[in-house]
Design a protein that fits this description.
Length: about 230
C-alpha cells in the first residue's frame, strides 16, 4: 500500500480524456491491465453507442443492411460511435499517435456493445482491415484498424483476411489534409489486391479506425468492387 501511495503521488491516476483524477473505483474498473490507459465514468457515459447503419454520403440512418438511401453509394457505414465525441477522439488519438495499444481494452467493449444493439447477421461476410503502408506499419509497430477488425472478427465469428488488400503507396497522413480533393488525390491508386479472385462474390466488412470524408474507404471499396465484391459494410 505504501508503494501504491508513492506511485499515486508520482504518477497521479487521471482520465486520459478529461485529465481529471480517477476515483478508486474507476481505477479498478476502467483501466487496462498494463495500467497505461484509464478513463473516468463521466467520459465513458458521454460516448453514445449507435444502433444502426448509416448512409456514408448524407450520414442518414438506414433501417437495415440491404441498401443505402443514395443509389450511387457502394457501401454502408457502420460506426460504433461518433468521432466528434471528445472521449472517442482521445482514445483513437492515444492509440494511433502515442502507440498505446492498451486503450483497446477500453475500445473493445464499445465495439461489442454496438454489435449487440445492431443485432445484425454477419455469418456470410469476411473481414478486411484497411492496411497501412509497410513503412508506416514499421514506424507504428501495429495496424490499429487490424486491432479493431480482430475485435469484430472475434465477436461475430467471421473470417479475418489480413493479407489480400495491400497499400502500395506511402501516402501523407489524411488527418493533415483538410481539403477533400487533397485527401482523394493523396489516397488515389494506393491500394491493390494480392488475390482478386478471393474477393469475387464475397460480402465484406471493411474496417478502419476513423471515417471522416470517406476518401480512404471509397478508394478501398473501389478496388474491392472491381474484383467483384458483393455487399460491403
Amino acid at each position: 500500500k505504501i508503494k501504491d501511495v508513492i506511485l499515486d503521488i508520482l504518477f497521479p491516476p487521471i482520465c486520459l480524456s478529461c485529465r481529471n483524477l480517477l476515483t478508486e473505483n474507476e481505477r479498478e474498473t476502467h483501466s487496462t491491465s498494463s495500467g497505461q490507459a484509464k478513463i473516468c465514468q463521466k467520459c465513458l457515459d458521454s460516448i453514445q453507442i449507435y444502433s444502426s447503419f448509416f448512409c456514408p454520403k448524407c450520414k442518414s440512418r438506414v433501417p437495415d443492411a440491404e441498401k443505402s438511401c443514395h443509389k450511387e453509394v457502394k457501401f454502408l457505414l457502420a460506426p460504433a460511435a461518433d468521432y466528434q465525441n471528445q472521449a472517442v477522439k482521445n482514445l483513437i488519438w492515444f492509440l494511433k499517435y502515442h502507440k498505446w495499444q492498451g486503450v483497446m481494452k477500453i475500445i473493445e467493449p464499445i465495439i461489442n456493445r454496438y454489435l449487440d444493439v445492431l443485432n445484425s447477421d454477419f455469418k456470410d461476410f469476411i473481414v478486411i482491415p484497411i492496411p497501412l503502408h509497410p513503412d508506416r506499419l514499421k514506424e507504428r509497430g501495429f495496424n490499429q484498424s487490424e486491432l479493431i477488425a480482430e475485435i469484430f472478427s472475434r465477436k461475430t465469428k467471421t473470417i479475418l483476411e489480413r493479407n489480400n488488400l495491400k497499400r502500395i503507396k506511402a501516402t501523407k497522413n489524411q488527418a493533415e489534409l483538410k481539403i477533400i480533393e487533397e485527401r482523394e488525390e493523396n489516397i488515389k491508386n494506393c491500394f491493390k489486391l494480392n488475390n482478386p479472385k478471393e474477393i469475387e462474390n464475397k460480402n465484406i466488412v471493411l474496417v478502419d479506425d476513423v471515417f471522416t470524408t470517406g476518401s480512404t474507404m471509397n478508394a478501398a471499396v473501389k478496388i474491392l468492387k472491381q474484383a467483384g465484391a458483393k455487399k460491403i459494410i
